[in-house]
Amino acid sequence: MKNKDDFQVNAVLNIFRASNLLSRIGGKLTVKVGLTSVQQWILLGAISKQEGLSLKELREDTLVTKQNISSMVDRLRQAGYVTTYEDLSDRRITRVKLTEQGKLILEALKPLTNASNDRTFEVFEPEELVLFASLIERLVTHLSQQIDRPE
């Protein structure tokens, strides 16, 4: 019989496996619309939810490190998907918003995403999916809080 440690190890390994598989699936979708990575898609999605996010807010929302967020946003800007501007009340803050081209990319991804998500989650009953989503969200919140805590 498995003990708690075995279940925890299996859970972590399966989360990593699922993440890798989802990344591969997402990579196939992003290539179809001209993005170069799943990370670009994640950033565009976060920016679309709140127009005018600061780089700090975007970093916190997507869990991208401070060192990487500027270069990732620069690549999106160079590709024409976002624009950046200084905050009017504090020039030290850089804000980012989608361009029309960025909005078009997300619109093109929407049907692909919906079809992929339908295939991905078809193994769950609707109630199971609600529970699964809430459990994953709780885990992500808990892990985010642990990152900043000393061991």
Give a verbal description of the structure.
The protein is mainly alpha-helical. The protein has a domain at 41-120: Arc Repressor Mutant, subunit A. 70% of the residues lie in helices and 8% in strands. The protein is built from six helices and three strands. The chain has helices at residues 4-33, 38-49, 55-62, 66-78, 100-120, 126-147, and strands spanning 53-54, 82-86, 94-98. It has a three-stranded antiparallel sheet with strand order 1-3-2. Strand 2 (82-86) and strand 3 form a beta hairpin. Helix 1 (4-33) crosses helix 5 (100-120) and helix 3 crosses helix 4 (66-78). The two termini are 31 Å apart. The model has no long low-confidence stretch (mean pLDDT 92).
